[in-house]
Design a protein that fits this description.
about 500 residues; alpha+beta; Rossmann fold; nine-stranded mixed sheet; four-stranded antiparallel sheet
């Protein structure tokens, strides 16, 4: 095969993305290697790296190539890298260092960033959020135009099976901590949640009807069961309600294995097929951002006239609940219409004295921003709107961040999630099982064994570092429908270790 043919074949393999020309201005910029990138020594003269994009192949390099990647520390210029390594670096397809450098800066490859400064923050604390946003935009290049019902369509039609979704598409906090972790005080998310509910008095008297909305694979129910004895679980019906049919089997299977009497319903939580005043406890982890958004224009809000029936319904909801919306308005506005509809449904189906815990990432002021994920876009939740709606409906409410609720160990160091994605790909090639979750260094060593010594580039974040997973952005609403025991009769939350619980008066 000629050199030209080899180059063309490699280009086809790499999705045919045109290289970035290394002109004079670019050669003078510095090269940053993303801290997510893990280098694995497969053999005496063969090293592997894996782009974040699952569709792109592993990069196989010689010793000089691995050294080149390690030299991308933000201090060396592109020109200096080329001079020092360019002609010595090659892949199995015989492509040289320049070819790799021209492509490694492409957003989809996410191996390097070229510029005068890191994308965000100091080099020692680089957050990489801007570059990762570009990667997400690259995932979105072939996504059809999204409408206001695209989220329900995605969850009904776009998810074909349970395997891999929470590893590749949208990793949740509950999924990251489905195994015991030091950050969760040596236990799991579901088990710690159960302990917290018991401490708050939410399991006494026991809730006879529990509904978990959008339960993912079902790990929360599995772990929650461990907090209740077999006698306590008797006469409790655990119901899963989820738009995504393929998840329901995993949910009920894990729940029944754990000892629950479990049933499942495929339905939209914004209009639940449940009887009025039939549920004792609602659990909702990370679903509010998946509910129907309304994308208003600024003029619609200013004139208070919707451009279609759904927008009119949303404006009527805003009017009835007297949600505080203060001009001036931006040209385009995201409103969490579906999340507030869900809140109304929770009020309808909860028994007097019933409770609900809602967990999601979001903001307290301003308007929600889109969060682009493979195949779909989610939207931040505006919690001041939800809290106002809860008060209007009549709920007693408590509000805090997720780390505050669970009392997480804030100084725990956990593996970068991007590195976990990379390791998953490398282990798959080696036919070695590996799951994406939160790992301390000790926990990763127990999982990888001897493989750990062949890896370089691993780094760890403080579990509350925004660069890791942004846990401080995950908020919790604790709701109680009046008519049963008063919140005032339950153990009160107090300020402790700098954490403050905000309680609605």
């Amino acid at each position: 095969m000629t050199e030209s043919a080899t180059t063309d074949a490699a280009a086809d393999l790499w999705m045919g993305i045109s290289p970035q020309a290394l002109d004079e201005d670019l050669l003078n910029q510095r090269a940053w290697r993303m801290p997510d990138i893990v280098i694995y020594q497969h053999g005496p003269e063969e090293w592997w790296v894996a782009p974040l994009d699952e569709e792109l192949p592993l990069v196989r390099l010689n010793r000089m190539g691995a050294t080149l990647l390690g030299a991308m520390d933000g201090r060396m210029t592109i020109g200096a890298l080329l001079n020092q390594y360019g002609k010595w670096v090659c892949s199995p397809s015989q492509l040289n260092g320049r070819w790799h450098l021209e492509r490694w800066a492409q957003p989809r490859f996410s191996l390097a960033f070229y510029g005068t400064e890191p994308p965000s923050g100091h080099s020692a604390e680089a957050k990489w959020d801007l570059l990762l946003q570009k990667v997400r935009e690259g995932w979105h290049q072939n996504v059809k135009a999204e409408t206001e019902d695209h989220l329900s369509t995605f969850h009904v039609q776009g998810i074909q099976g349970p395997h891999g979704h929470f590893e590749l598409i949208e990793t949740t906090v509950s999924h990251l901590f489905r195994e015991p972790c030091e950050a969760m005080n040596g236990t799991t998310y579901g088990r710690l949640l159960g302990k917290t509910l018991r401490q708050m008095g939410w399991l006494s008297p026991k809730p006879k009807q529990i509904v978990e909305v959008g339960a993912g694979l079902g790990y929360v129910s599995k772990e929650l069961a461990g907090e209740l004895s077999a006698d306590e679980r008797q006469n409790i019906n655990y119901t899963f309600l989820d738009l995504t049919g393929p998840f329901l089997g995993s949910q009920t299977s894990l729940a029944r294995q754990a000892g629950w009497t479990a049933t499942a319903i495929q339905a939209n939580a914004e209009c639940m097929p449940l009887a009025d005043q039939s549920v004792d406890l609602f659990i909702d982890n990370e679903n509010l951002a998946d509910m129907t958004p309304v994308q208003f224009s600024g003029d619609e809000l200013l004139m208070f006239k919707g451009e279609n029936p759904q927008h009119e319904e949303a404006l009527d909801l805003i009017r009835r609940m007297r949600l505080p919306l203060n001009p001036p308005f931006p040209d385009e506005i995201i409103f969490n219409y579906g999340a507030i509809q869900f809140l109304q449904e929770v009020w309808r189906v909860l028994k007097p004295g019933g409770r609900a815990i809602l967990v999601e990432f979001g903001i307290e002021e301003d308007w929600p921003s889109p969060v682009k994920l493979p195949g779909h876009t989610e939207y931040e939740v505006q919690f001041s709107h939800l809290r106002h709606a809860a008060k209007w409906l009549g709920f007693r409410e408590q509000y805090c961040t997720l780390p505050q609720l669970l009392g997480m160990k804030p100084d725990t160091q956990v593996l970068c999630t991007g590195a976990a994605y990379t390791l998953r790909r490398i282990c798959r090639e080696l036919e070695k099982p590996f799951s994406v979750r939160a790992y301390t260094e000790k926990e990763l060593g127990a999982t990888l064994g001897d493989l750990l010594s062949k890896l370089t580039g691993l780094h760890y974040h403080n579990v509350l570092d925004p660069a890791w997973f942004g846990l401080w952005d995950f908020k919790v609403m604790l709701l109680e429908k009046p008519g049963g025991l008063s919140i005032g009769q339950q153990p009160a939350f107090k300020e402790s270790a700098g954490f403050r619980w905000y309680t609605q008066q």
